[in-house]
Amino acid sequence: MSIDPRSDRAIYQQIADQLRAQILRTGELPPGARLPSERELMERYDTTRATVRQALRVLQAEGLIDSRRGAGAYVRERGPVRRVSLERFARKHRDAGKAAFVIEAEQQGRSWSQELLKLGETPAPQPVAARLGVEEGEAVFVRRRRMLMDNVPLQYADSYFRLDDVQGTQITERDSGPGGVYARLEEQGHRLTRFSEELSFRMPTPDEARGLHLGPGVPVIDLIRTAYADDHAVEVFTAVMAGDKHVFQYDFPAE
């Protein structure tokens, strides 16, 4: 490998380009692999330690590598959760007493857990109010959790409901019961007919980065899902998801 001293691209950028290609394209540096040491990179590219470190900072800012004090730099382990959109909310899973998150974990041979952060009434934020058909700031019920697989935090998740829809149900309790909140809604006569999901991407807040164990340069996914019974929304689910730990798969007919 070599760099082009006549290029208008800085030397550290050329080094970062070549290492990035080995991580993302050729597979020479797979997840978990240790990058060559700073000295090895200095010798390989006949450059200074400062230039090598600048190249590594670029890759770290992109979320491709982690630097471990005294141990060098390693390609980030991604281990994504594959979320199959049209399958995960199938009624057969609710009938079997399993919520979508549980199904995902089991299908991938992983353990799961959740931390309940809030359970009770809260003012409806604007995006939730618009979808639930209530006034902004009106009291709604929220279940707020941090979700983990194999003890690794994946997402913060909030489920919002109109108060009348959950009053007297197990949705208001710590354990929502077999099949999760969707099974409880259907027991109340709200037979689910469709779901709508919206995804967007951004950089995390400092609290989100700490809570989801995100490395530098790793984005989060903002997901808003609305569950409908006939033509009215019965739940709005919002999530902040670790961008390096999820793959979304959508299968649908061509017709």
Structure classification: alpha+beta
Please tell me what the overall shape is: elongated
Strand order of the largest sheet: 4-5-6-9-8-7
Which ranges are low-confidence, i.e. pLDDT below 50, for 5 or more consecutive residues? none
- Using the coordinates shown, work out and report the CATH topology of the largest domain: Chorismate lyase
Structure description:
- The chain is built from 10 helices and 10 strands.
- The protein has 255 residues and is of the alpha+beta class.
- The protein folds into 2 domains: 11-75, Orthogonal Bundle (Arc Repressor Mutant, subunit A); 81-249, Chorismate lyase (3-Layer(aba) Sandwich).
- The strands form 3 sheets. It has a 6-stranded antiparallel β-sheet. The chain has a two-stranded antiparallel ribbon with strand order 1-2. Strands 3-10 form a two-stranded parallel sheet.
- The chain is elongated, with a radius of gyration of 23 Å.
In a few lines, what is going on in this structure?
By secondary structure, the chain is an alpha+beta fold. It is 30% helix and 31% strand. The chain is elongated.
